[in-house]
Write a structure and sequence with these properties.
The structure holds two protein chains of two kinds. Chain A is mainly alpha-helical. In chain A, 82% of the residues lie in helices and 0% in strands. The chains are: A mainly alpha, B mainly alpha. Chains A and B meet through α1, α4, α5, α6 and α8 of A and α1, α4, α5, α8 and α9 of B.
Chain lengths: 247, 281
């Protein structure tokens, strides 16, 4: 407990410094509302339900897009490592789309699917797929040949080998790829909601910002930051669980 | 100190194959690798003409190519790419320098480590772009807020890579340098940093695409001359050929930047064993 306090004391100090700078108006209140005002605004947003409904919209978009990226991207990576034909077919596409700056896809997904959920889900799927694919590919490629041979010699079919041998040995790199994808999904979600959306947390931030309601804007920004932090930390827990057998 | 004479380059075994078989081999490789991309382009063209999707959603390929050539010919592309890259590289340079220095400081100084460690472990996984409207509020909609956003986003991977790199330096090397009378400063600059360089460069290689992604995104949000700003303008006026041209152009710029960075890495690490080995993606 005491250790945790010492460890996170710098964050507390930063929060106090924020409060002091804003309270004594070392900078204009307009540029920096006090932390207490931001906290009050946060509870108001929570009570009105505004925060929860918009957060639910954002989480839905992010979760569906990520799920598609992880399932399809992971499958593509494993099969690219396992099958020469799949590699020849998909490898050039991965190389072609890898250097696309993901934010450049935002106007195109809006062209295709409009301002709603669909364009965000597609954007997150397209943007987050490649880190997963590359993680799965590099991981699966490093599978020990001897394990593959012994599995085959003991009569395992091709799919059985993929599921029981290739996927477990690809897991560490695959999970790292997914972790990158989670971070990227938040970036793309917030950007696309700021640029082209009518709901979601990113939309709220933009709306409060242009309306000059800065305490509510700071409250929403901190909410998004907290969500991203919690998502990463929980995934790290999952990773540790999933890789516990490695010792 | 004297240079070690002679080279350690490994000469690849010369393959005894005739020119003709090598040409055929090379051609078939190129054909196999470009197959999917050709199919993709054909499907695009077929879809654009089929009427299944509108011209607005998928402009025909030739119209996109013509637009790219126009923008190259008028010099528009070079102006926009120059502005976007200059912002991205300015932010990248500051982030690279500040990240390396901060990482070094955190490894060597306990107080700095105590203060920055929680800030970085909480800040790294946060979606920093959410702070963009705050930077707009503080710094306006011009280059200052854009570059600040790029720095804040790109600095974290550099800091963590520098820390991991410096902490991973083998103690024996440091000990023997000290033993031979190297000062602390010499140990840092001539032993620790070169040994940590591969990791630091990896951090920079993560940071560069981030800088470009954020540069384009900030232009889309705030406007301004640049590739992202041009895509925003084009999408507002429903000029989809220009939007797709923008996607191709930003990808080309991103590709060139990634390749240039890989080249810098090979140059700086020409002494390192990894340069001899080949890597995946």
């Amino acid at each position: 407990m005491k250790q945790a306090l010492i460890r996170y004391l710098p964050l507390v100090l930063l929060a106090l410094a924020w409060e002091a700078v804003a309270r004594f108006e070392l900078v204009s209140r307009l540029a920096l509302p006090t932390l207490t005002d931001v906290a009050v605004a946060w509870f108001d947003l929570l009570r009105s339900g505004e925060l929860l409904t918009n957060a639910a919209d954002s989480v839905y978009r992010g979760a569906v897009g990520l799920l598609l990226a992880v399932v399809l991207g992971g499958l593509a990576g494993v099969f690219m490592a396992f099958s020469r034909a799949v590699n020849v077919l998909l490898g050039p596409l991965v190389e072609l789309f890898y250097p696309v700056p993901k934010s450049a896809l935002i106007p195109i997904t809006v062209f295709w699917l409009g301002f709603g959920d669909g364009s965000k889900i597609l954007l997150i799927f397209l943007g987050c797929m490649l880190p997963v694919t590359i993680g799965a590919y590099n991981g699966a490629r490093s599978t020990d040949q001897a394990l593959l041979w012994s599995a085959r010699s003991m009569g395992a079919g091709r799919l059985r080998v993929v599921w029981d041998v290739v996927v477990p040995s690809a897991l560490p790199e695959l999970l790292n790829g997914i972790r990158t994808a989670i971070a990227l999904s938040f970036v793309l979600l917030v950007l696309s909601e700021l640029i082209a959306s009518r709901k979601g947390l990113g939309f709220m931030i933009g709306l409060f910002g242009s309306g000059g309601v800065y305490d509510a804007m700071f409250a929403t920004v901190l909410t998004v930051a907290l969500l991203g932090f919690v998502a990463d930390r929980s995934f790290q827990l999952v990773m540790r669980r999933a890789l516990a057998w490695q010792g | 100190m004297a240079r070690v004479a002679g080279s350690t380059a490994l000469t690849a075994p010369v393959q005894a194959s005739s020119l003709a078989t090598r040409v055929i081999h090379y051609a078939s490789r190129v054909a196999a690798r470009s197959f999917t991309i050709v199919v993709l382009l054909l499907v695009w063209e077929a879809l654009a003409h089929s009427g299944v999707v509108s011209r607005f959603m998928l402009p025909p390929l030739p119209s996109v190519i013509v637009r790219i050539i126009e923008q190259l010919g008028s010099g528009e592309f070079f102006v926009e790419a120059g502005r976007t890259l200059s912002r991205a590289l300015a932010g990248f340079a500051v982030a690279g320098l500040a990240g390396t220095v901060l990482g070094m400081l955190m490894v060597r100084n306990a107080a700095a480590r105590w203060f920055f460690e929680p800030v970085i472990s909480v800040g790294f996984p946060m979606p920093k772009v959410a702070f963009l409207p705050i930077f707009i509020l503080w710094f306006g909609v011009y280059d200052l807020s854009k570059i600040t956003m790029i720095i804040v986003d790109a600095v974290f991977p550099v800091i963590t890579a520098t820390i991991v790199g410096l902490q991973g330096v083998e103690r024996e090397i440091v000990w023997s340098a000290r033993n031979m009378g190297a000062t602390e400063r010499q140990v840092l600059w001539q032993v620790m940093l070169p040994a940590a360089l591969p990791q630091i460069l990896t951090g920079l290689q993560v940071a560069l695409p981030i800088a470009i992604i954020i540069a384009i995104a900030t232009e889309m949000l705030m406007g301004g001359v640049g590739l992202g700003g041009a895509m925003l303008e084009a999408s507002r006026s429903a000029d989809s050929a220009s939007v797709f041209a923008g996607l191709v152009e930003t990808t080309a710029v991103g590709y060139a930047a990634i390749k240039a960075m890989a080249l810098v890495r090979r140059r700086l690490l020409s002494w390192h064993q990894e340069t001899q080995r080949s890597t995946g993606f």
